[in-house]
Structure formats: C-alpha cells, structure tokens
Design a protein that fits this description.
This protein is mainly beta. The protein has one helix and eight strands; from the N terminus they run H-E-E-E-E-E-E-E-E. It has a domain of 107 residues: Immunoglobulins (Immunoglobulin-like, Sandwich), CATH 2.60.40.10.
C-alpha cells in the first residue's frame, strides 16, 4: 500500500493567501481619512494644569433653538432643518464633527472656522423610511468650546399610510 504524501507547504501557502484576503480590506478601510472633517490639530483649547482656563478667551456656540419638531410627516419623507447658531465668544469657533445616533439622520456642518460674532447653521436631514410613530433623534456637535460637545434634537410624528 502506498502512502500519499501531504503537501503541507501548499496548504500552508493557501492559508496565508486566505488570511491576506481577510486582513487586506481592514487595512484598506482603516487607513482612509475622512476629508469632510477638520483635522483635530485645529481644535486648540488653551488650558494647562498650572495656568487654568479663561473661558472669556474661548469661542461660545449659542443655538437659536436646540430642539426642532417637524410635526406629523408621512413615512418615507426626507425632511431638513437648519439649526442656526452664533459664535458669541472671543475666538474662532471650529466644528470638528457632528454625528447622529443613527444612520437615518445626517448633519452637515460648516467646514471653515466661524469668526467671533458670526452666525451660521448646521443642516440636519432626517429620513423617515421604515420609521413610525413618535421619533426623537440626537445630533452631537463637537467643537473647540467648553464643553466641547453640544446636542441638538429633532422630533417627528411619523404617519404610516394604510395599504390595501
């Protein structure tokens, strides 16, 4: 009886190839940089342990409203609201990022610093597809203010039409 030789180097090679196909997508996507976000080195808060912090020397973001109610909308509608704000501080306001608590809500923020005394807005779009009833969504805005996170909210009562 003849024994078949197992080609371990061949099977080992295929194992490495399969592992490469598994790891390669992670490397590809993890090295990307989101070009819509400002670099974090632009967000400078001049505080030290021994000097402390003078809040009068910082930007301050004041929203005209922090909650907006769309009222009753029909399921599947996309609705948008502009949250107006003003930089009432002494320094330039930088919005580093804004993110929602789910993929159905998207926030668009100004890309350039907002000068002292200048007003601007954050556009929030909500997609009511596959949603129903009363819904509240949050958008967290990350800035160079103290505190550095502000939360704005949208509400809607989503009507689901009856199908026959």
């Amino acid at each position: 009886m003849q024994k078949l030789k197992s080609n371990t180097s061949s099977s080992n090679c295929w194992g490495k190839v399969r592992m490469g196909f598994f790891i390669l997508p992670f490397l590809f996507f993890s090295c990307g940089q989101n070009k819509d976000q400002l670099p974090t080195d632009m967000v400078n808060i001049p505080a030290t342990a021994d000097k402390g912090l003078d809040k009068d020397d910082l930007p301050d973001m004041k929203f005209a409203e922090e909650i907006f109610d769309f009222g009753t909308i029909t399921q599947g509608e996309k609705v948008t609201h502009d949250f107006k704000f003003k930089n009432t501080g002494e320094k330039n306001l930088i919005i580093a990022n804004a993110y929602a608590d789910c993929g159905c809500t998207v926030a668009e923020v100004p890309k350039k610093p907002i000068l002292s005394g200048e007003a601007n807005s954050i556009r929030v779009t909500f997609d009511s597809n596959k949603k129903s009833g009363m819904v509240t969504k949050e958008v967290t805005v990350v800035t160079n203010c103290i505190p550095n996170k502000r939360v704005i909210r949208i509400k809607a009562n989503i009507f689901v039409p009856q199908t026959k």
